[in-house]
Amino acid sequence: MSEAEKKRRAEYQRLRKNRIWIQAAVIILIAVLLIASCITYFRLSKTDYINYTQSSTVNYKVHLKENDMFDEDILGPNMTYIANVIDKLDVDFSYVMDMQDTDAAHTYSYGIVAKVLITDNKTGNVIHAPEYELVNAENLKKKSGGELKIRESVSIDYSEYDKIATEFLNVYDIREEATATLVLTLNVDVTSRCLSSGITTANGDSSYNTSLSMPLAVQMTSAQTEASAPNGETQVLACTGSLNPMIFKVIAIVLFVVELILAGILIAFIYLTRNHDINYAIKVKKLMNNYKSYIQQIKNEFDREGYQILYVSQFSEMMEIRDTIQSPILMYENEDKTRAEFFITTNTKILYLYEIKVEDYDEIYAQQLPEESDEPEELIEEDLVLEEIDYVDEIDEETDDGVEVIGVVWPEKEHKNKIYRYDPNGETVYDGDIVLVPSRDHHSNKDIVRKAAVAHGNHRVDPAMLKHPLKKIISVVKRRHE
Questions:
Q1: Which of 430, 422, 190, 173 is nearest to 305 (CA)?
Q2: How far is it, in rounded angstroms, from Cα 220 to Cα 140?
Q3: Which residues contact 423 (CB under 8 A, 6 or more apart)?
Q4: Can you give the pTM of this predicted structure?
């Protein structure tokens, strides 16, 4: 294979691999996004529940003016009081929210207001209701877990609010038709957020109030308390996704479709861009993997000179031959990785051969055959010393008809006692003549031209003895008698 052809094939393989890796990287990236979308969808679709309890209380004390009737200066709760001896009220408000789950956070605000509430006795409608802000706290925060506690105390001048109510009723002369009440209220606004794996989910917004009320503009009065928060009852905060999970479901579906399309494109690309080299490599690798224990790989090309070659069409037949004659299967692959030979040799000079070649093997190497020329590609100019050549005693059996051949020998040790047949190419040669013949150097894997000694001059042999086409000698270099 020419160097240009090797470079062309290597560049094709490099570009193909790069494109495969780029497409695979895109597919992996989309797969990661697909997994992330699916996880986000399932997280947002999941509803978590957080249990919590609430409690609220109001405690108060009544401070009395100086008088001759009561020994105490302060009276406790749950009593009826003489209105005109009440000086002030000390009121303690308490609100507690206890989250059993730590995976929540709260933003809250609260305030305490005093209201003079004047209502119609018959209808209960509000006639007048001035409000007075006593405490205001906004945008307070409580991190995850534990209790949210609010405790506030206020001191109320009862007589001042009683004076406001009495004056209003007297001015409009409605003491018999209306009722005045002092209402102290703790208002609490809580926003609870569920925290799931760092994602803030839906809010639980709640408003609660706790109040204490006492009649005004009366001779005797008593206090009543009321709370909107259910004391001690377990309640549930449902945590659902603040984002619409369907968005991520649609994204996941789209990414899945794109993933399938790109995977199909990659598979088609890999299949359609498989050239002859790739198909050849796959076949060789598959065969070696399946029959590794039966094949012995050799590094040098086997010299098939003198063997009768029998080509085998299926490797399974090679296995049957191996089992029959109990001979190993040898494997040789050329340097260009374009041809692999699997063969079995026998003592009777029969060579069973199974070949795997790239599809354009013959075309590639046909282009590299040297053009016919008087000058050989390579000439080994060694001087042959005829006395050192071992001539083969067993020469061909001659026939009157048949194919005309000559037999030559080489001086090298590895060729000792071997005779090689050539076409005399119209020349008449005799034993001991030196001729120039085409051959092949197995070390460099190149076609060469070299000298050989004639061991058997012109003669005819049975065509059945010839196992492959004869090569023609190039010329007679030296006659033995010269």
A1: 422
A2: 40
A3: 404, 405, 406, 470, 471, 472, 473
A4: 0.45
In 383-404, which positions are buried (b, 16+ CB within 10 angstroms) versus exposed (e)? ebeeeebebbeeebeeeeebbe
Task: For the chain, give the longest Cα–Cα distance.
Answer: 170
Q: What is the pLDDT along the chain (482 residues), one digit of tens a residue?
A: 445 555 666 676 788 788 889 999 999 999 999 999 998 888 777 776 777 788 888 999 999 988 888 888 899 999 999 988 999 999 999 988 877 666 667 778 888 999 999 999 999 999 999 999 998 877 676 655 567 788 899 999 998 999 999 999 999 999 889 999 999 999 888 877 766 544 444 445 567 888 999 999 999 999 998 887 767 677 776 666 667 788 888 999 999 999 999 999 988 887 776 655 567 788 888 888 888 888 998 888 888 888 888 888 888 888 888 888 888 999 998 877 778 899 999 888 888 999 888 765 555 444 444 444 444 444 444 455 555 555 555 566 677 778 899 988 877 755 666 788 899 999 999 888 888 888 877 666 677 788 888 888 888 888 877 777 888 898 888 888 76
Residues 6+ apart with CB under 8 A from 175: 169, 217
Rounded to an integer, what distance in angstroms lies between the CA atom of residue 329 and that of residue 352?
Answer: 9
On whether the CB atoms of residues 215 and 251 are closer than 8 A, the answer is no
